[in-house]
Structures are given as C-alpha cells and as structure tokens.
Amino acid sequence: MEEREAIYDREPEVIFADTKHEKRIMHYSSNQKILLVGEGNFSFASCLAKRFGSAKNMVATSLDSKESVICKYSTAASSNLKELEDLGCVLLHEVDVNTMRQHPLLVNQRFDRVVFNFPHAGFIFKEHEKSQIKLHQDLVRAFFASACEMLNESGEVHVTHKTAYPFSKWEIVKLAKKAKLFLIEEASFSRWDYPGYVNMRGSGINCDQTFPVGQCSTYKFAKMPLLEHYDLLMSKLQIGYGPRKLRH
C-alpha cells in the first residue's frame, strides 16, 4: 500500500494536443491518453514510452500482481517497470477486464485509446476446441464491455489478434458489435514496427516465452460507424482539443 501511494500521490498532468511536438509510433501518439490492458512483461508500454520520451499520457495494467510479473518475466519485466515509472507511467496490477471500469484509479477516467494486444484466456483446452474458443470469447466480450465505457467520445478500442484459424473463430468483430463498438479499420500488424516489444505467452510452463504471431491485425473499433467517427475527428482537429487531465 505504501508503494502504491508513493506512485500515485502526485498532481495530475495536463495533456495538450500539441501537434508541433507530437511524437508518434504507428497508431499511437504522445497526445493521446492511452490505456494498455493485459500487459505481460510491459515491453509494449516501454516501447511506446521510449518513442514518446515520456509515459505521462499512459496507464499500463496487468492481470498479474507486480510480484508475479517480475517472477514470470524475470529477463525484462523489472527494468521495463522501472523505466516506465521513471517516465511517469501509471502502473496498475491485478486489473481484471471484467471489473477494470470500477477500479478506484480508473473509474472516472476516459481514454483516447484502450489497447489489448493478443488477448488470451489461458491454455485450458486445445486452441481449436469449442470450449477454449468460448473462454477466449468470454474474455474479449468482457473487455469490450468495459472498454466501451472508458472511451472518450472520439476514442478507439484496439485489439491485436491472430487472423488465421482457429483464432478467426473468435469472431471479435461480432463480439465488438454486441458491445456497440464498430470496426473502423483492420490494420496489418508487425512486431518489428514496435522496437523492443516482445509478445509473451503469459500462462503455462512457458509463460515467459514468445510465440510466432503469424498473420495478425490490429482491429480498431469506435463508438460510431466509420464515416461518423471520421467526421467527429475532423471537427475536433478544427476546433482543437484543449487541455485534458490524466488523473493519477
């Protein structure tokens, strides 16, 4: 508890849409307020923070406790967490997608991007079995339900996911639609676009091992269909965003 208070007992940062000094990496910008869900060794969060030169616009979460993260991913997790703390990232552990919108440090937050890379419910059955696919679908369904309520008006939910069988059977676009999220883009994903990012299995005896991503995409969802979402973004660019606070 003392450690958590030390990390979060500080004044909120004010984030401006400063296009002159904006730094970008793929779909993400230093001007965006970003929530990263289900981080493993926090290498994705670290990658974004290094590119931005700061992580004050980011909240990065894990399902595991901090102790479990360091134990499972001993090769990189400690250094990634230390670096993120030094760069101002809000780090939250033991955050479940089912209840994350009620987390005391997230309950009043709204984000420009809510990101979940390679969601996975654990290795219970074989990947092609219906029981395993249902577990994955339940996880993604819960994530969409929570994420939808944590977006600002023009925000986006991003899920990076394998597109080949049996992962295609998850039907995440349909799951998103049931949560009133609309697909606005499917962008091809390459791990090499994110220097330093190493995707991890996350569970099982090989939890600290990476896995081949094969064919995969970053699916982008918004609260409204593509044309309406685009019009809203254009209107915001014309009038300016103004200051936004990232509460710690």
Q: Which structural class do you get from the secondary structure elements?
A: alpha/beta
**Helix segment tally:** 7
Neighbour order of strands in the largest sheet: 6-5-4-7-8-10-9
The total strand number stands at 11
Structure characterization notes:
30% of the residues lie in helices and 22% in strands. The protein is globular, with a radius of gyration of 17 Å. Helix 2 (43-52) packs parallel to helix 4 (77-86) and helix 5 (130-149) packs across helix 6. The strands form three sheets. Strands 6-5-4-7-8-10-9 form a seven-stranded mixed β-sheet, with helices on both faces. The chain has a two-stranded antiparallel sheet with strand order 1-11. It is of the alpha/beta class. 34% of the residues are buried. It has helices at residues 2-8, 43-52, 66-72, 77-86, 130-149, 172-178, 226-239; strands spanning 13-15, 24-25, 28-29, 34-37, 58-61, 90-92, 111-117, 151-162, 182-188, 216-222, 244-246. It contains seven helices and eleven strands. A hairpin with a 2-residue loop joins strand 2 and strand 3.
